[in-house]
Amino acid sequence: MERLQKIISQAGIASRRAAEKLIADGRVMVDGKVVTEPGTKADWQASKILVDGKPVEAPEKHVYYLLNKPKGYISTVHDEHERRTVMQLLSVIRERIYPVGRLDYDTEGLLLFTNDGDLMNALLHPKNEIFKTYEAEVTGSISEAELLRLEQGVGLSDGMTAAAGVRILQTGKDSSRLQITIHEGRNRQVRRMLEAVGHETISLERVAFAGLDLSGVSRGDYRPLTRGEVRSLQALAGK
Ligand code: URA
């Protein structure tokens, strides 16, 4: 048994406070009777609860998955140009899940999926400064000055980027590999940062997001998150 206002708010109909008002205003019925008593308890499964005559559905169970996205998939639920979408890689999941942010069509790597809208919004909110790490292969060799600029912030059309963690993994005359950690999530941010310092991106992979990495998940595969991983995401997102 749960308090009615909790049931109504968990069903996403109204906040706890607003649900109390719905009850006080006589807009809530349990098993055919109007209930106005605050704090009345009911059973999700066994009772028929109506708000303004509409049934209150039990909330969907929250699910969380980590996908290792291959190139050549768009990170939206539908694509108007009929390109392959990341949803096709998780087509056996019954719940209505959404990607947590986006990776470009040609970017590979870690992408989370969930039906927990609260956590998703919190992970994407700039104030929570969630860290993402990328490995990029770029044209040409990277100089110390360029490395410093990437670290300190570069000017893009939508403003300066915040400080980033940058590590050169390998540098050569024709191409170099580097690792970049950022907490912003602007459109094509890493590619644009690299372009701003004179390098074209040959390939880009997200290797970590919010403390999670791709260990044990091959390209195109996915796995559910553990309870501990979900809890640590919630902590990072201030939930
Ligand atoms: N930065 C990019 O440029 N592309 C991505 O897909 C993610 C981050």
Task: Describe the main β-sheet briefly.
Answer: 9 strands, mixed
Poorly predicted ranges = none
Distance between the termini: 25 Å
Q: Architecture of the largest domain, CATH level 2?
A: 2-Layer Sandwich
Taken in chain order, the helices and strands follow as EHHEEEEEEEEHEHEEEEHEEEH
The CATH topology annotation of the largest domain reads as: Alpha-Beta Plaits
List bound small molecules: uracil
Q: What's the number of helices?
A: 6
Overall structural domain count? 3
What's the CATH superfamily of the largest domain, by name? Alpha-L RNA-binding motif
Task: Please characterize this protein's 3D structure.
The model has no long low-confidence stretch (mean pLDDT about 95). This protein folds into three domains: about 1-55, Structural Genomics Hypothetical 15.5 Kd Protein In mrcA-pckA Intergenic Region, Chain A (Roll); about 65-120 and about 215-235, 2-Layer Sandwich (Alpha-Beta Plaits), CATH 3.30.70; about 130-210, Alpha-Beta Plaits (2-Layer Sandwich). It is built from six helices and 17 strands. Strands 7, 8, 9, 10, 13, 14, 15, 16 and 17 form a nine-stranded mixed sheet that branches. By secondary structure, the protein is α+β, with helices and mostly antiparallel strands. Bound molecules: uracil.
